[in-house]
Design brief:
globular; eight-stranded parallel beta sheet; binds zinc ion; alpha/beta; 13% strand; binds methionine; 796 residues
Length: 796
């Protein structure tokens, strides 16, 4: 039978109701036995395979299941286990220790009871998604060995025994090494890591042989790095790795080189030389790459078209997808094209069927993972029917009617979404069109603003502040639950929040901080809180996606033009200000962070959505200022995450990201002090853009690498005020005043002391009150010492 196939690159392993999360966490808590863990995980895999089969998927992935993370699994499978975990016996304990650390007593490999305390391996963002993978640690003389029973082979056989022939998914050797880091200092950089290919690839070969023996045919080899910036070293690594990988390739095997998140049309010269049998391209991110890819696709290769978005929640515009598919089929023939998801569905919630509270109009525009399966198979059927009679005749009239019905329903949904009043708000569009450069600029330069602000807020030298949140205790969370479930009235809940806020303000006063915050007790999450108050945002009940390990997040959905029906935070800041003479700092989440941590519209550029968010937040800034809150922080922790994967695209992104921040922040008087806060990443390479944001004060996380941040300050210079975090809030450890003093002293080599603030490196919501109080008392003590020391400009 000659026909187009349907294919999925990966399925959300966590389950419809986050079953896998609960199972694994139960195992960690000692409530689920190892046997149950294995057995129930298997049941979940089977369920997911059957679901995909029943929805019409031909190429169903296996090997996309993991107990923690697939990159970790790859490292584990090839025996790349860092020395510090090697005393732990092989098995779940060792595996989870690598993912999340292990403290406690275990039986070591010799069978003795020993105390162990090993930290987890490092975690990093999976390309530009919000999923975090475990970073393999490899030494220069790393040796690899293939696990005697690789789970990927076991899973393939497991599915096969049910009569489901799956497509095993492997992380390709080059991307695997490029995702890793050197375990020792000499091994930094891609060059050194790629030197390990000759040691690694033979084990991939053995694995492929085992898969062939088990009966596998197509293997999906993920090489997302193919779309990124390639150095000659990396290109050469690809050539050598794949030449070696396919030496003695078992005759039945076919390799599908799989790319996503970036375009590869400009890489086809390299790709076409690789001895594989097919290529997958992401046509969601880059539909325009199709022509270039087709032009250079080697004869006989299969082309898998990523037409259904694995990273967002919208229904696919099937007509548009079919147009691309037709272009491909016309050129290479029906037997060589697959209809596929753009990437793994890991980044997409499980199913819409559990969303009982979503507005039906909006729900009709969405497709989660399960619904996307149907889209992929409908695309297949529609294409096969189009070519029916020419090369194939596999359809019957009943099926054709069904496909037509689905296509026309899809057309109606897409059309409705384009024109719905819920989506299109002419007032917002008009306002955005009127934004002019004067709205993106403060009315005075920093040098003029800062003294006015210092005077107005009576700020001492080395002002002290915090990043916004104070402990979100059990009581706070339980109060919120009571309110949400209706057990508490709004008045009851607000009274409770006021009480917490007052406690927080009093404590800050007693500690002697200079710029206070209200504590953010009313916020569940720094994006969701704003989303709930803005028009154009929707929320799901069960729209969970994997963040890392067993942790999931539930991003809100921006579906329409965003605007702000009423003030969102003013009441809390104003209330806190009634309690104290000290300045209260208003607290907002910035436009880029709101964008990054939501599912966003695919019907307009991200930059437009960011600017709509910015306009809404600009109004909030104005309202705070009018209400006499004249220190305002606009958090942008996610600004670095939005960076495109290729450097050539960075400037364009940074331009609009900075512009969105400026639109939010620039309307204020010169005496109003704008703070911003960033954390979670190295900001060194975007330093010039951070300067362009022109915040009066930036508080920035640096606890994990003082040195790097200092180098950036040195290299690029920074001319406004800054508060590089003086201690790491992620640890319960209370830092001493001396310790913070040492850190501060080091920073002062690079920063003018008149412009330095003292603060922790992020919000305090995960800490308890005792830790917070002691740490902040030490912080104000550090400030006291340094004020004395620098009173006369003394810099010794
Ligand atoms: C992830 S950044 C957090 C900033 C926020 N204002 C807080 O303190 O929690
Ligand atoms: Zn932070």
């Amino acid at each position: 039978m000659v026909a187009v196939l349907s294919s999925v690159l990966g399925f959300p392993r966590v389950g419809a109701q986050r079953e896998l999360k609960k199972l694994i966490e139960g195992f960690w808590a000692g409530k689920v036995s190892e046997a149950d863990l294995s057995q129930q995980a298997q049941a979940l895999r089977v369920q997911h395979w059957k679901l995909q089969r029943d929805r019409g998927i031909d190429q169903i992935p296996s090997g996309d299941f993991s107990f923690y993370d697939l990159v970790l699994d790859t490292a584990y499978q090839f025996g790349a286990i860092p020395a510090r975990y090697q005393s732990i016996p092989t098995g779940f304990d060792q595996y989870f220790a690598m993912g999340r650390g292990l403290q406690g007593s275990i039986r070591n490999v010799e069978g003795e009871e020993v105390q162990i305390d090993v930290p987890a391996m490092e975690m990093k963002k999976w390309f530009d998604t919000n999923y975090h993978y475990i970073v393999p640690e490899l030494s220069t003389n790393q040796e690899f060995s293939l696990n005697s029973q690789p789970s990927i082979v076991a899973h393939f056989s497991e599915a096969k025994s049910l009569g489901i022939h799956t497509k095993p998914v492997l992380l390709g050797p080059v991307s695997f090494l490029l995702l890793s880091k050197g375990a020792d200092h000499e091994a930094a950089g891609d060059f050194e890591l790629l030197k390990l290919l000759p040691q690694l690839v033979p084990h991939y070969r053995t694995l492929l042989a085992k898969l062939a023996q088990a009966g596998a045919t197509w293997i999906q080899v993920d090489e997302p790095y193919l779309g990124l910036d390639l150095t000659p070293t990396v290109e050469q690594a690809y050539q050598e790795a794949y030449a070696s990988l396919t030496q003695d390739l078992p005759g039945a095997l076919r390799l599908l080189l799989t790319t996503y998140f970036e375009q590869v049309d400009d890489r086809m010269a390299l790709i076409a030389q690789l001895p594989v049998h097919g290529l997958h391209v992401d046509l969601i991110r880059h539909p325009e790459q199709l022509s270039g890819v087709l032009a250079k696709l080697p004869a006989n290769w299969v082309l898998s078209l990523g037409l259904v978005n694995g990273r967002n929640v919208w229904k696919t515009d099937l007509d548009a997808a079919l147009q691309l598919a037709t272009q491909a089929v016309d050129q290479v023939g029906i037997d060589r094209v697959w209809m596929a998801t753009s990437c793994s569905l890991l980044h997409c919630p499980f199913s819409l069927e559990f969303e009982t509270k979503l507005d039906p109009e909006i729900k009709d525009w969405l497709a989660f993972s399960s619904e996307k399966l149907t889209e992929v198979s409908i695309l297949r059927d529609a294409i096969n029917q189009r070519y029916e009679g020419t090369e194939t005749d596999t359809t019957n009239p009943a099926d054709k009617a069904k496909v037509d019905a689905v296509l026309s329903a899809n057309r109606a949904s897409c059309q409705a979404r384009r024109t719905s009043e819920r989506v299109v708000n002419p007032a917002v569009k008009e306002r955005l069109a009127k934004v002019d450069p004067s709205m993106l600029k403060r009315n005075a330069p920093f040098a003029e603003r800062y003294p006015v602000q210092t005077e107005k807020q009576h700020l001492p030298l080395f002002p002290t502040t915090t990043i916004g949140s104070f402990p979100q205790t059990k009581e706070v969370r339980s109060a919120r639950r009571k309110y949400k479930s209706g057990a508490w009235s709004e008045e009851q809940y607000n009274a409770f929040l006021r009480q917490e806020t007052e406690k927080c303000v009093r404590l800050q006063e007693s500690i002697g901080l200079d710029v206070l915050v209200h504590g953010e007790f009313e916020r569940n999450d720094m994006v969701e809180y704003f989303g709930e108050k803005l028009r154009g945002y929707a929320f799901t009940q069960n729209g969970w996606v994997a963040s890392y390990g067993t942790r999931c997040v539930k991003p809100p959905i921006v579906y329409g033009d965003v605007d702000r029906p009423q003030p969102m935070t003013v009441e809390w800041s104003v209330y806190a200000q009634t309690l104290t003479e000290k300045p209260i700092k208003g607290m907002l989440t910035g436009p880029v962070t709101c964008l990054q941590w939501s599912f966003v519209r695919d019907d307009q550029p991200r930059s437009v959505t960011a600017h709509q968010l910015a306009l809404a937040l600009r109004d909030e800034v104005s309202d705070l200022e009018k209400a006499n809150i004249t220190t305002i922080q606009i958090d942008e922790p996610a600004i670095r995450e939005g960076l495109p994967l290729r450097r050539a695209k960075w400037e364009a992104y940074l331009d609009w990201a900075v512009s969105a921040f400026l639109l939010t922040s620039s309307s204020v008087q010169k005496g109003t002090q704008i703070h911003t806060h960033m954390c979670y990443s190295d900001f060194n390479d975007i330093f010039p853009a951070i300067q362009r944001m022109d915040a009066d004060v930036i508080t920035i996380e640096n606890s994990r690498s003082d040195l790097k941040l200092l180098r950036a300050f040195e290299q690029h210079g920074y001319y406004n005020a800054s508060g590089p975090g003086l201690y790491d809030i992620h640890s319960p450890r209370v830092p001493t005043a001396e310790e913070m003093g040492e850190r501060l002293q080091a920073l002062l080599q690079y920063l003018p002391y008149q412009l330095v603030w003292l603060n922790p490196d992020c919000g305090l919501k995960t800490r308890n009150w005792t830790e917070v109080e002691s740490a902040l008392r030490n912080l104000t003590e550090t400030a006291r010492v340094f004020r004395q020391k620098y009173a006369n400009g003394n810099t010794n």
